[in-house]
Request: fold
Amino acid sequence: MSRDLLDDAFTRGNRYLSEIDERRVFPDDEALSALSGFDEPLSWKGEEPGKILEMLDDLGSPATVASAGSRYFGFVVGGSLPVTVGANWMATAWDQVASSAVTSPAADKIEKVASGWLLEVLDLPRESAVGFVTGATMATFTALAAARHKILSKKGWNVEADGLFGAPAIRVIVSDEVHVTALKALSMLGLGKDRVIRVPTDANGAMDIEHLPELDDCTIVCTQAGNVNSGAFDPISEICDRAKRAGAWVHVDGAFGLWVRGAKSRAHLAEGVEKADSWAADGHKWLNTPYDGGVVICRDVETLYNSMSVSAAYLREIETAAQNFMPEFSKRARGIEIWAALKFLGRDGVDSLISGCCDLAKHFAKGLTDLGLRVHNDVVINQIVVSWDSPEKTENLMRAVQRDGTCWFGPTIWKGHNAFRLSVSSWKITKQDIDLSLNGIDAAMKSIEK
Ligand SMILES: *Cc1c(COP(=O)(O)O)cnc(C)c1O
Reply:
């Protein structure tokens, strides 16, 4: 019975993925209104499991966004490599508590191997600690908790024990175009999202080093490897050199951009990033693993351990347990998908995945310019910021394309301009998909001009 049920789930999931490119990217109104079918009272007796999966598939599947398909360019959303979906299904069947080798020797081993491979492919200090967190938000949160620990312990303050009330002040420097989730991390850490110093950015959205304040040993600099709109890289190498002299901590938010370090043609953009103290990256964006797969990397193992470790009478175990390097205690074995992606791709595969998306983004940007649209950014990696003649036309075009369903992308504000943003982040996207999308955009423009 449970076997038939899971076979059914597998068949439905498989069918969903095999049909994904024949459907609209964003669901139609009919699928959206059918979602009201979920509005039902919680029963007393429970229901038959087969029926539950059927309902999920009948009502849920059509109302999903086809971001796992090949014409989704919204936010920075990658698809999932089939091997990572398979690994996820296997690991779900295992249902391991991936906190330590005591709760799961297999998960512990695989995540440790994945950690080593990650440091290799990203070319970061091999001695660093790695934690498999839910996403880049939590990765930055974790890294900044380590930074907070380091800075305050140097001043003789134990922040984990005594909190921040009365502690020496920590100064935080961010880019004026900092990702909102880094601010969220700062707010959750008690470092405050409004007391940061914001450094102005250049034309492509990278921190302007001329405006970087003097650094000292009470300062955290939060840099970006990949501006979420333009893909621009802050001058991290130079920032690290200055930070090293001053004793400041440099964190790199490389949610998607950090992966260019695995691409020969683009690695120069992130040169010197290895000199930082901590890094945040996402598997679920550009490495194309399923959601929630983020990674925190911290050069100073002991500092991360001191800020995250727990002890309890029933936890007489291994210092290297995952739970000592990240906020989560019980967690699923999410490093397995990253392991599977890296094992499948190899270093050459990571290179072609990342370089391929960057090349397609260039092709896309040229096509958009040819249609008479304005590309605002220097398309250094996979991100394109675009607008039409006026804010109204830009908005109307975006809505028309979303309605048409051929592809999907969303709005942004770029240097005060209303624009839309396209991200080429999936293994599934081909040149034909870009051309089909360009045709859809062209048709939408014509229908608006009429
Ligand atoms: C997506 C993103 C984040 C947040 O990552 P999550 O995985 O959604 O938590 C942070 N920074 C940048 C630059 C991003 O693109």
In short: The mean pLDDT is 97.
